[in-house]
Amino acid sequence: MLEKYRILKKIRIILNGNPTIYRYFASLILRFKITGHIYMQLIDTHTHLYVQQFENDRTATIDRAIAAGVEKFYLPAIDSETHEAMLDLEAAYPEIFFAMMGLHPCSVKADYEKELKIVEDWLGKRHFCAV
């Protein structure tokens, strides 16, 4: 029970009471290893920290998350307009940020075939941790 309290406290630090940040950190995974003690690894499996809404406090948000124990961040693509920002964030933190290529369901519009072609082109250019 004490471990659960510590986990919730860390997540509260990350969220900092901000509902916008909550959406980006809502899918944290907890993985436990037994090595004489319980080791907890926090992984944010779905964050769009590269979007414009985080422009003013992106570094502070990342710093809070790392300080709270988040060790890895997975960046799902949204659409072709955000690929550069996503890849720039991954390049800035290559050991902890991992780009995923695709087309976010909220971005499926009339030009979806053009967007899917761009996704296909990116998949031919480099490795992504997920599609």
Account of the 3D structure:
With 131 residues, the chain is α/β, with parallel strands linked by helices. The chain is built from five helices and four strands. It has a four-stranded mixed β-sheet. A hairpin with a 3-residue loop joins strand 1 and strand 2. The radius of gyration is 16 Å and the shape is elongated. The termini are far apart.
In short:
The protein has helices at 2-15, 19-25, 58-67, 83-92, 112-125; strands at 28-34, 38-44, 70-76, 97-100. With 131 residues, the protein is α/β, with parallel strands linked by helices.
Task: Name the features.
131 residues, 4-stranded mixed β-sheet, 4 strands
Structural class by sheet pairing and helices? alpha/beta
Q: Report how far the terminal alpha carbons are from each other.
A: 36 Å
> Helical content, roughly?
40-55%
Order of helices and strands: HHEEHEHEH
- How much of the residues is beta strand, in percent? 15-25%
Largest sheet: 4 strands, mixed
Count up the helices.
5
Mean pLDDT over the full residue set: 80
Query: How large is the radius of gyration?
Result: 16 Å
Give the beta-strand count. 4
Low-confidence stretches: 19-34
The neighbouring-strand order within the major sheet is 1-2-3-4
